[in-house]
Amino acid sequence: MLNNKFIHSSTDTITAISTPIGIGGIGVIRVSGPLVPIIIPELLHKKNLIPRKAEYLPIFDTDGTILEQVIALFFPEPNSFTGENTLEIHGHSGLIILDILLERILKTSPNIRIAQPGEFTKRAFINGKIDLVQAEAITDIINANSYQAAKSASNYLQGHFSQQIRAILNKLTELRIYIESSIDFSEEVHVLSYDKTIKLLDNIIYDIKKMHQSACHNLILREGLKIVIAGEPNVGKSSLFNALIGTERAIVNDASGTTRDILHECIQLNGILFHIIDTAGFQNNINNEVEKIGIQRAIKELNNADHILWVINAYEDRQYSNKKYEDIFNNIRKKLLHKNQQIPITIIRNKSDLSKEKNKLYTIKNHTFITLSALFNSGIDLLKNYLINNITYKSYKDLPPGFINNQSNLITRRRHLNILEKSFKYLLSAKNQLISTQYVNEFFAEDIKLAHNELIKIFGKFTTEDLLKKIFSTFCIGK
Hints:
Elements: H1 4-8, E1 13-17, E2 24-32, H2 36-44, E3 55-60, E4 66-75, E5 86-93, H3 95-107, E6 112-114, H4 119-126, H5 132-142, H6 147-157, H7 160-184, H8 194-223, E7 225-231, H9 237-245, E8 263-269, E9 272-278, H10 289-303, E10 307-313, H11 322-334, E11 345-350, H12 352-355, E12 360-364, E13 367-371, H13 380-389, H14 414-437, H15 442-456, H16 465-472
Parallel strand pairs: 1-6, 7-9, 7-10, 10-11, 11-13
Antiparallel strand pairs: 1-2, 2-5, 3-4, 4-5, 8-9, 12-13
Helix pairs in contact: 5-6, 7-8, 7-15, 8-14, 14-15
């Protein structure tokens, strides 16, 4: 649980501008803390405000002159975002006027200070208005870089992910009650049979695994999917890069080695963020130091890819045998680190305009091939649809193809993923204990307890103050 020092530091009255700095129609200043009822009469020359009712009022300077006409909203504790007395001031948005209003608020009492980044949301968490998952979802909504990411973060904020975790925790609690009772009072209470214990445990393991798989997929929404275009020189990598991003970003020329550095652009496909990366062409016997550096960087990008598009010349490729294709895959894998051998690779047979072939997608021995013409933007939609419908996360081999479904449309942080993995390992250890001994013992009970405690960390319990500071410091001031 949070220590007293952390709670005590959150009792000051704080204020900050909650809207982005700039010229606009409306700027919002938020004030939260015990001094809000004292601030209202001095600032607005009104004894009190009707809770949750917007009022159009002047803000007065210390000499009694009017600084600005604003909309004022008062939210009394505990029925506010932070759980504290909260005042919102809605005025014109401009750097100077908002600073003037903020300075005026600070002058009402020496015990009011500027809020730290994320401090309003942190107080909402401390006061039990939201859990840590929902707090993280707020900054994910603000920083969402795609439609699906924003939609998914909203689902998190509504508590959908938290509900699923709590359902698993309830099952674990029920199992722990039976386990610890059977150990301490085996003669006095009804003890679960071995079969029923295994069944309960398998049910929980299935739930965790299902959530973990969904979490791996949904992590793509926050971070996007990294697609690396690679191949030998002059096969049309840069043309494919330009066709995918929809603009002439890369230089296209018949000369070998046009691309020597890494080119990076982001696109959205079906609401999902894709990082498209163009790399230098792979070739042997390079004497040019710049080209060597380019290939080294290309290899680095390959190893960090979620999906590799290896481009070959379809015109020269017409006579390739299946063995030749297998050699291509083997050569690509040799460039990868051992831990990333499972990175999906798709062969792009470019220049179909020269080979006079029909654009198509097909498989040979579980390897995917797409024939297209990047130069004439022909077959690019075929590739885009393939990427959308075959998203997988590189580190997890058992994820199903495809992504968009309403049940799993929840954004995920790596913190959540790590917790699910640790809990899953403890549950598997518990199952192995039970299978080997055929009865419930202290070691089995300890593994179940550790799995339970890991999952609780998702909501912030047993979370260190340092971790909380790290999480909330990523928020903007005013949230």
